[in-house]
C-alpha cells in the first residue's frame, strides 16, 4: 500500500470518530523520529553518502557529523545547507526543518523564497550564497 500524504492524513483526522481510532488506523503512517533518525532515513531513501553530503553542505565536518549523530542542535541555516546538499525538494525540506525544531520556509519572506527557488532548481550552497548576495540578502553560510 502506498504511503498517505500529509494532506490525506489531515483529512482523515478531521473525519475521525476519535483520535484513538485515527492513531490506531494510521500507526504505520506516523513518524516520531529525531532529527538524526530523519537524516539517516533520508540518506538511505535517496541513496546518498553522508561524507559527500557534508562536503557539499559547506558545513564544518565535525559539526555536521555531530548534527547527524544527534549531538548538536543546529541552526535553521545549517539545516537548509544540508537540505540543499541532499537536493531535497521544498516539501522534504519542510519536513527536515520540522524534525530540526526550527521554523519552516515561508514563501512570503523574500529570503525564504530564494531558498525555496534554490531547492526547486537543485542549486548548490555556493550558488545559493552567490544568488543571495546578488539580491542583497544575507548569505546562507557566512
Shape: globular
CATH class descriptor name of the largest domain: Mainly Alpha
Order of helices and strands: HHHHHHHHH
CATH topology group of the largest domain = 434 Repressor (Amino-terminal Domain)
Please give the largest β-sheet.
none
Q: Which percent range fits the helix content?
A: 55-70%
Number of structural domains: 2
What would the average pLDDT be, to the nearest integer? 93
Strand % is under 5%
Estimated structural class: mainly alpha
How many E-type strands? 0
Count of helix runs: 9
C-alpha Rg (nearest Å): 17 Å
Description:
With 142 residues, the chain is an all-alpha fold. It folds into two domains: 1-30, no CATH class; 35-134, 434 Repressor (Amino-terminal Domain), CATH 1.10.260. Helix content is 62%, strand content 0%. It has helices at 6-15, 19-25, 35-46, 50-57, 61-69, 76-85, 90-100, 110-120, 125-134. Helix 4 (50-57) packs across helix 6, helix 6 (76-85) packs antiparallel against helix 7 and helix 8 packs antiparallel against helix 9 (125-134). The mean pLDDT is 93.
Pick out its properties.
mainly alpha; 142 residues; 434 Repressor (Amino-terminal Domain); 62% helix
What does this entry show, briefly?
The protein has 142 residues and is mainly α. It contains 9 helices and no strands. It has 2 domains: 1-30, no CATH class; 35-134, 434 Repressor (Amino-terminal Domain) (Orthogonal Bundle), CATH 1.10.260.
SSE layout:
Layout: H1 6-15, H2 19-25, H3 35-46, H4 50-57, H5 61-69, H6 76-85, H7 90-100, H8 110-120, H9 125-134
Amino acid at each position: 500500500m502506498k504511503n498517505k500524504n500529509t494532506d490525506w492524513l489531515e483529512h482523515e483526522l478531521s473525519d475521525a470518530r476519535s483520535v484513538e481510532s485515527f492513531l490506531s488506523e494510521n500507526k504505520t503512517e506516523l513518524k516520531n523520529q529525531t532529527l538524526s533518525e530523519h537524516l539517516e532515513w533520508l540518506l538511505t531513501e535517496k541513496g546518498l553518502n553522508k561524507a559527500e553530503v557534508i562536503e557539499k553542505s559547506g558545513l564544518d565536518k565535525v559539526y555536521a557529523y555531530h548534527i547527524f549523530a544527534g549531538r548538536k542542535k543546529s541552526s535553521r541555516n545549517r539545516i537548509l545547507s544540508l537540505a540543499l546538499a541532499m537536493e531535497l525538494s521544498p516539501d522534504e525540506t519542510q519536513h527536515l526543518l520540522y524534525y530540526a525544531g526550527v521554523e519552516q520556509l515561508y514563501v512570503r519572506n523574500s529570503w525564504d523564497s530564494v531558498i525555496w527557488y534554490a531547492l526547486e532548481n537543485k542549486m548548490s550552497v555556493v550558488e545559493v550564497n552567490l544568488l543571495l548576495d546578488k539580491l542583497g540578502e544575507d548569505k546562507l553560510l557566512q
